[in-house]
Amino acid sequence: MNGECGGDVVVSRWSGHPGCVGRARAQLRKALAGWGLTAVEDSALLVLSELLTNAVCHTYTAPEREIETRCTRSSGGLRIEVVDAGEGRPVPGAPEADATGGRGLWLVDALADRWGVTEREGPGKVVWAELSVVPDTGLRGKGAAEVSSRADVPT
């Protein structure tokens, strides 16, 4: 792993080995604590795990290439990006009820306010997700936006 931390962003490069997922989670947990974003910790760690696991398991990473993670703090929360050189775009699966996998992007969709895939310069793509924190409520994600919008409605 090669990594760099700079204020509001943590960027690291990982081999395509599954062991990198746990190390990436530990790194993000530390950054979230430093940024005061522990309210999104559980969701953020799961989202990072799912996006990075997809990159490790479903894209070919040549020995000279690495998978990059970029976690950025913003005024409203957190953006997680996973950059890989693989072809294709991830789509939510349709697993059988007894399948042990295939639900990762459904989890990302449930936990993140927004997520998507964008092109990048060079081969591959950027898969990203954004999680928000609503001030004074400690809530995060889609539920936080609903509470925030309801807060403006008189009762």
Question: What's the gist of this structure?
Answer:
The protein is an alpha+beta fold and 155 residues long. It is 34% helix and 26% strand.
Explain how this protein is built.
With 155 residues, the chain is of the alpha+beta class. α1 runs antiparallel to α2. The termini are far apart. The C terminus is likely disordered. The chain is 34% helix and 26% strand. The protein has four helices and six strands; from the N terminus they run ββααββαββα. β1 and β2 form a beta hairpin. It has a six-stranded antiparallel β-sheet with strand order 1-2-3-4-6-5.
Chart the SSEs and their pairings.
Layout lengths: L1 E5 L2 E6 L5 H16 L5 H18 L8 E8 L2 E8 L19 H8 L2 E6 L5 E8 L8 H11 L4
Antiparallel strand pairs: 1-2, 2-3, 3-4, 4-6, 5-6
Helix pairs in contact: 1-2, 2-3
Low-pLDDT stretches: 144-155
**Main pleated sheet:** 6 strands, antiparallel
Work out the radius of gyration.
16 Å
Derived structural class = alpha+beta
**First-to-last CA distance:** 52 Å
Let me know the number of strands. 6
List keywords for this structure.
155 residues; alpha+beta; 6 strands
